[in-house]
């Protein structure tokens, strides 16, 4: 398959079998806050602990994150598709305050919004940015995390949100 003169699909057979966790990433810089649904993210080091989050260059959250010192990364339970839809199908450029109808509080580090109903979360200091093409990787060093929950609930996965329409162009 070709699109805009480029061959695409070289990873399709591999990625089509994956069903990885989805995350909501939030950030703030100055008086602006933003958040988006992210599928490209993973722990990438044990010692020191590091986590990489990839944000689309087309996303408002990316533009705010480039000015921020910290990002907050949230996991969602399988029953939180409404939250995934809010952060995945709407862009901040739509003049939508994604935080208006959801319980949240500012984190002590950089005031990244922390979603009260998230399954788990951590705040990471941005250590480095890595250009990966249409996404930029934010290498995070954890500085704060949610307390452990009593159980490990089923997480919201890619397969649970594939019917959502992305809020920004591909």
UniProtKB/TrEMBL annotation:
Keywords: Oxidoreductase. GO terms for molecular function: FMN binding; riboflavin reductase (NADPH) activity. The keyword Oxidoreductase applies. Residues 18-165 form the Flavin reductase like domain. It holds the Pfam family Flavin_Reduct. SMART domains: Flavin_Reduct. Gene3D superfamilies: Electron Transport, Fmn-binding Protein, Chain A (2.30.110.10). InterPro entries: Flavin_Rdtase-like_dom (IPR002563), NADH-dep_flavin_reductase (IPR050268), Split_barrel_FMN-bd (IPR012349). This is Flavin oxidoreductase.
């Amino acid at each position: 398959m070709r699109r805009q003169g480029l061959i695409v699909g070289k990873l399709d057979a591999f990625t089509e079998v994956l069903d990885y966790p989805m995350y909501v990433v939030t950030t703030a810089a100055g008086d602006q806050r933003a958040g988006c649904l992210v599928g490209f993210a993973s722990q990438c080091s044990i010692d020191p602990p590091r986590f990489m989050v990839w944000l689309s260059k087309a996303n408002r959250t990316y533009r705010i994150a480039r000015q921020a010192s910290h990002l907050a990364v949230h996991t969602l339970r399988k029953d939180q598709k409404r939250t995934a839809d809010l952060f995945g199908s709407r862009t901040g450029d739509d003049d939508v305050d994604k935080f208006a109808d959801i319980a949240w509080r500012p984190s002590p580090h950089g005031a990244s919004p922390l979603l009260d109903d998230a399954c788990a979360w951590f705040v990471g200091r941005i250590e480095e940015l890595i250009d990966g093409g249409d996404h930029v990787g934010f290498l995070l060093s954890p500085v704060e995390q949610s307390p452990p929950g009593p159980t490990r609930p089923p997480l919201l996965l890619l397969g649970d949100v594939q019917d959502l329409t992305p809020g920004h162009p591909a």
